[in-house]
Inverse folding.
């Protein structure tokens, strides 16, 4: 996007009067805040804390898998680790991270003073710590945490202990938080844009979040319905999914993946938005094919609702069904490829520089494309029947989730950190963080393609000797990747405490309102008087 | 679409408009939640 601003009377100075908060101090400031910047920061810190918790669980998994045989944990606990790692990373880490970006950036990028429902915004966030606590508490109740996998398939869920109930309630809370956040985002974008900021002038990050929010509103209630039916099967005598009472366990899989596949795009579309801000800034060119990016994003979102059964080719569905879901899934490659080519074209003949945000965006571009291609491999029903539930699938979705979403989140933090805090991070350390993450990520996950192709099943604590080498390499990579993230924490804390002052427009090529119209750090209250966008 | 209604003196109409948008979206979410349960509870 390239918004041209009317500078008359709406300059940076006009916003300086509101660069501090009023009301409670200390902890109560954060409990009671309705400011989108405070809430965005809390989302980001919460997601980082959950990222650490989920990361430790991943390391327990990889430590156990370092050698064949059972060494460190028993199989039940191993299953609990895989389940909680998935749930915490998806619902506690990645999703809140991008909601944090949305809170910080959407009002600033559309020229609004805050989110539409500021009090509900506070509630949306403060539900999360309780949901996270419920999830973690499930380890300490009789029977421990559920070991059913993050997909929570029936009939295992009907047989689990009390930890399953805590997890179901946690999912309800997380869903409520996401839906409220989405309602806030859609309302803010539709109703509170500055004069002249038409939809097609919005930065692409706002577009991707607008579409993501609609996806959340349509898919989260379906997950809530699925886990509610699981709850009533467990305690109220219904038999939605319980075969013993005439229910259908496969029905759960259909309902779950009707939510679950849009969920993949709920995670990755905001990441696309972040990349679409970073690449033009460091290419010093406008985003290539802005309109086609918007339409491609919308196409991906619509298609995401008609591909769910590609996750369940092996349940015994008719060949015509497999064909439909196979063709629909491969069709998603078209708008996704349009985006990849648009990003490449954005860089084509640009004045490229390779600061840390750009490195993470390029890492995303390279690795997400690989994850997309392995997804195409898995979309083919005949191939997937061979690879279903193997480590090939684990490798595929970690290329999408970690290299796709997480790398982008890191890139986004580095990109907007100067605007958020008014301070600069250490560029050298940032590049170290990128290269360590890049190398260790590939050591961890690239080899999992090989163990998967060789037939190693996922979610097992023990494995035949033939898989040992790949697993050893993968575990070494995982510990390296985990330790590299401590460097990220150090970089952020160092920058917060002693970072150099950042310029108002730290990145030469950045052209959205928060860079062109607000000082660094962005004032506590921005755009109380709306800018006029031409 | 008349953007920026939440600003300044025109804040009140925007509030109503925001509330209306929010309620419509909340109703869609609630309808999806109830419909998915009702479908498999009542229509099997």
């Amino acid at each position: 996007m390239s918004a041209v601003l009317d500078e008359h009377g709406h300059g940076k100075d006009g916003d300086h009067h509101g660069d501090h908060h009023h009301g409670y101090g200390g902890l109560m400031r954060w409990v009671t805040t309705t400011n989108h910047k405070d809430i965005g920061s809390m989302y980001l810190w919460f997601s980082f804390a959950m990222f650490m918790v989920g990361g430790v669980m991943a390391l327990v998994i990889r430590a156990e898998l370092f050698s064949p045989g059972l060494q460190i944990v028993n199989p039940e606990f191993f299953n609990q680790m895989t389940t909680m790692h998935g749930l915490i990373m998806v619902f506690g880490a990645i999703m809140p991270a991008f909601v944090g970006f949305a809170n910080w950036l959407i009002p600033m990028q559309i020229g609004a003073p805050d989110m539409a429902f500021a009090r509900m915004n506070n509630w949306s966030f403060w539900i999360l710590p309780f949901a996270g606590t419920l999830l973690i508490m499930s380890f300490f109740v009789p029977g421990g945490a559920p070991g059913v996998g993050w997909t929570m398939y029936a009939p295992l869920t009907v047989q689990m202990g009390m930890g399953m109930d805590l997890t179901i309630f946690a999912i309800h809370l997380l869903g409520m938080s996401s839906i409220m956040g989405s309602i806030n985002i859609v309302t803010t974008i539709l109703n509170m844009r500055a004069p002249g900021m038409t939809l097609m002038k919005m930065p692409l990050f706002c577009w991707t979040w607008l579409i993501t929010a609609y996806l959340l509103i349509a898919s989260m209630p379906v997950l809530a319905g699925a886990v509610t039916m699981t709850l009533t099967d467990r305690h109220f005598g219904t038999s939605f999914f319980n075969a013993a009472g005439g229910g259908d366990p496969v029905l759960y899989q259909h309902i779950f993946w009707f939510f679950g596949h849009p969920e993949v795009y709920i995670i990755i579309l905001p990441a696309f938005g972040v990349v679409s801000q970073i690449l033009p800034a460091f290419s010093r060119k406008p985003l290539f094919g802005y309109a086609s990016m918007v339409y491609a994003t919308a196409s991906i979102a619509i298609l995401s609702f008609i591909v769910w059964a590609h996750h369940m080719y092996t349940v015994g569905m008719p060949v015509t069904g497999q064909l439909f879901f196979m063709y629909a899934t491969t069709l998603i490659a078209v708008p996704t490829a349009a985006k990849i080519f648009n990003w490449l074209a954005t860089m084509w003949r640009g004045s490229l520089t390779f600061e840390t945000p750009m490195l993470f965006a390029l890492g995303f571009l390279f690795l997400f494309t690989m994850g997309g291609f392995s997804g195409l491999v898995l979309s083919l029903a005949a191939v997937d029947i061979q690879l279903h539930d193997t480590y090939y699938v684990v490798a595929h979705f970690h290329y999408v989730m970690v290299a796709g979403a997480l790398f982008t989140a890191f890139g986004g933090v580095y990109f907007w950190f100067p605007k958020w805090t008014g301070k600069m991070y250490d560029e050298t350390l940032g590049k170290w963080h990128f290269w360590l993450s890049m190398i260790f990520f590939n050591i961890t996950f690239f080899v999992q393609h090989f163990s998967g192709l060789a037939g190693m099943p996922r979610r097992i604590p023990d494995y035949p000797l033939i898989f040992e080498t790949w697993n050893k390499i993968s575990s070494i990579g995982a510990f390296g990747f985990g330790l590299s993230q401590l460097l990220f924490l150090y970089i952020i804390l160092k920058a917060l405490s002693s970072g150099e002052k950042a310029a108002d427009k730290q990145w030469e090529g950045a052209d959205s309102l928060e860079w062109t119209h607000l000082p660094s750090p962005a004032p506590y209250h921005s755009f109380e008087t709306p800018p006029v966008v031409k | 679409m008349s953007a920026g209604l939440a600003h300044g003196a025109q804040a009140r109409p925007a509030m109503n408009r925001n509330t209306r948008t929010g309620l419509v979206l909340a109703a869609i979410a609630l309808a999806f939640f109830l419909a998915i349960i009702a479908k498999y509870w009542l229509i099997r």
